[in-house]
Amino acid sequence: MPRNRKKPSPGDSQPIQRYCPGSLAGRKMSLVESVKRSLRKGNEEERLWAVSVIPLLALQSETCADVLELVETFKPVMIGILTDILEHVKSANLLSPRDLMAMLDSSHLDVRTASGETLALMHELLCQHDSSFLQEDLPDLLNTVRKLSTDAYRFQGKRGRKLQRITFRDVLLYLQEGVVPEMRIKFGDETLLLNSWMMHRRYDCLKDVLGMALNVHLEKNALVRDLLKLGLKWIGL
């Protein structure tokens, strides 16, 4: 949520406590080969483990060029896996905007808010290429979002009702006026500005992966800084 982020608690999982690319440099290739081997020959559990390790390796890279090198290294084996997956889901219907609109009527708060934010994100990204995206369904969508921004299920707690209203007020404002809720996050002597649905989503994903170590990576990690458009960190002598 743009304005209602849950702060990680001390007991949350913290997969990367420090940014230490130098300590991994000597073992990088052996780690990469181990992950590739698990992707090719491992069972389902091993493959899931291997897939989860790839972004962690990327986050511990020294430069964005190192990340591109990792992508090229894993691309052949990942394409093979994705091809197998696509063969299994080829006949399945992927979620469409109308499917997401239907999920706005879910009795579960998390489903409603995730669907609303996903629709806003899809609109932001796809309208850059197709200005007619969602236009046919926009009147119905606006009516639903407007209702959710003022009403809430009676059985919801006070916090749930507040969360729903804030979320859908943000979505409604965006769909009507193109305004995305801004959020400024201070760390050290810098401020991170989140001013698009994509930037909000990137921040949330990084927070999920890095947990309490996020601020360390915001200050020192070139990839994280590039993803969040923070620029290079200049350290005075």
Automatic annotation (TrEMBL):
Residues 17-84, 98-175 form the Interferon-related developmental regulator N-terminal domain. Pfam families: IFRD (PF05004). It comes from the Eukaryota. Belongs to the IFRD family. This is Interferon-related developmental regulator N-terminal domain-containing protein. It comes from Anopheles arabiensis.
